[in-house]
Amino acid sequence: MFPDSAVDLFFCLSGFSLCLAYKAGSGGGLDFWPYIRARFARIYPLYAVSLGLMWWLVFRHLGGSGYYPTPLYFADAVRQVFMVNTWPLIGSGSNWDFPAWSLSVEAFCYIGIFPLLFKSLPRLMAWSVSRRLCLLVVLGFVSVIAFVRLWDGFMVSVHLYHPHPISLWIPMLRGVTLFTVGGIIYSFWVRKDAVASLAGQACDAVALAGFGILVGAFFMTLHKDYLTLLAPALVLGLAVNEKAVVARLLAAQPFYWLGEISYSLYLLHVPIDYELHHAWPALSHWTAAGFFYLDGGDVGRIHAFLLRLRVAAAVLDQGPEAGTACGADGAMIRAQVLGHRWARR
Fold it and tell me: How high is the pLDDT of residue 246?
């Protein structure tokens, strides 16, 4: 119902989680290559599996046809191997496993944005609360306005399509702005500013407002994309207030399970659905595999974030190796360092 909107929450979560895992703003340095290897190990293996499946499916059904000429097929294949097909000026914007557009943007944020954000955070934390809040609001509204007015959902799917040149910049704009917002709300969390306290107190109200937007979108009275505006407040609120109703709800075992498999669901539901749709054309699109991609997958990612938050906070004093491992695999740290203590709770 709102997969495009939920991606913005993911970008915000990612910016916050990386700042937390690598102790941004603490005065230490970022060991770039171990950081990149950890990021690569986190996202690329499953991405390669999904891409391999889609290569075969797209080539079998579309490759060499006038609908998808062979030269364009191979050009898109090479760009997707390097995860640059959603980068403006380089890629065409199309992704065979279309949720992977967000991974292409995320890869850019890993390489080009997080090192700058990491280096800038000490200075950012020295800013006044009002100044940081203004920056957050401006970035948030820029992302929402670009999303609502200029987002072209047809661009990222598998077909021969020529989007407006400006549309090619919108995925990157959304990712960079919300990823940076994640770093800003991390500064509020670290400094324990009044904004963080307010977000914690309002956590349940923000979650309820998000549910209200979904209901309004279902009845076509509200624009679902305005959910993006709530992402920073929700992430910060959940980070501050673990006793909020929504935080306790997300601590339930089913959401823990969804958090563990959510990345797999995110990438693999498309090739599964694509093959089933061609094998049984009578099935309407999304009917066969739609249950793999319930919005619970996004809820699961929020729960996984809460676990990483607890784990990272518990091992912050154990050195950069612990922080790096937490960023790469929070479940491993939870098992090895905490002995499943948080999982049992």
Answer: 87
